[in-house]
Q: What sequence folds into this?
């Protein structure tokens, strides 16, 4: 009994971004759902009877959510777990990073507006993070760069934004990269040709290539973090 609009039962795939339990023992999860965007699902009594859902209502759980759409609220009936990223939870820094990504998705996406393009980006970024094949700072950069690219906001990593020249060494200023001539006196993160090449490679490589890669990057993690912070700023400016 699927219902497209109004009340009724529906099943949607998605990922849990947040979980909140009330003093009364009700559980709410904030789920990024395919075709629906981020939505709160309420499970009355769900925080009391932990047996009922087990780990299926933990953040970062991917699955099919069985939902009853009521007149005012959406209710969670069941979760078919597809992937729970349990391995990720064994590494404190990786799970922290994943939690930050989930928090960004909460912050920078609109409730009730579909963001289907972000689902595969998030899923494969978590897979890359879980695998440990890519340095965490670079996995972080890659997640945000791919997110911005899907929104048409990612900086071009190959050409100068000012003059269009193919870049060697470059200055990164958030929404763009500039060559030495165009950057003038303005500040930015200075990237050697090799730094820029590494950022470019991890940004555009698909996850299969990343997962098969040997970890040979030389770019300074502090530099990567500075660049990633600028990507996040681009996101926050946009919302
Ligand atoms: Zn230039």
A:
């Amino acid at each position: 009994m699927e219902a497209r609009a109004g009340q009724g039962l529906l099943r949607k795939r998605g990922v849990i971004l947040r979980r909140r339990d009330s003093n009364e023992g009700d559980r709410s999860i904030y789920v990024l759902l395919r075709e629906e965007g981020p939505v709160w699902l309420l499970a009355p009594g769900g925080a009391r009877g932990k047996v009922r859902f087990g780990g299926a209502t933990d953040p970062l759980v991917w699955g099919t959510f069985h939902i009853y759409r009521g007149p005012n609220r959406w209710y969670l009936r069941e979760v078919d777990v597809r992937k729970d990223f349990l391995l990720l939870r064994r590494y404190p820094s990786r799970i922290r990073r994943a939690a930050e990504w989930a928090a960004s998705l909460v912050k920078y996406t609109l409730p009730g507006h579909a963001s289907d393009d972000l689902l595969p980006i998030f899923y494969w970024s978590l897979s890359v993070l879980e695998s440990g094949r890519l340095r965490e700072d670079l996995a972080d950069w890659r997640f945000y760069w791919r997110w911005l690219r899907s929104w048409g906001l990612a900086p071009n990593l190959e050409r100068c934004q000012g003059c269009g020249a193919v870049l060697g060494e470059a200055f990164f200023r958030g929404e763009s990269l500039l060559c030495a001539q165009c950057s003038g006196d303005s500040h930015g993160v200075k990237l050697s040709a090799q730094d820029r090449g590494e950022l470019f490679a991890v940004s555009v490589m698909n996850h299969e290539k990343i997962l098969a890669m040997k970890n040979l990057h030389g770019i300074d993690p502090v530099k990567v973090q500075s660049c990633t912070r600028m990507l996040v700023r681009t996101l926050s400016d946009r919302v």
Summary: Residues 87-238 form a domain with the de novo design (two linked rop proteins) fold (CATH 1.20.1440.120).
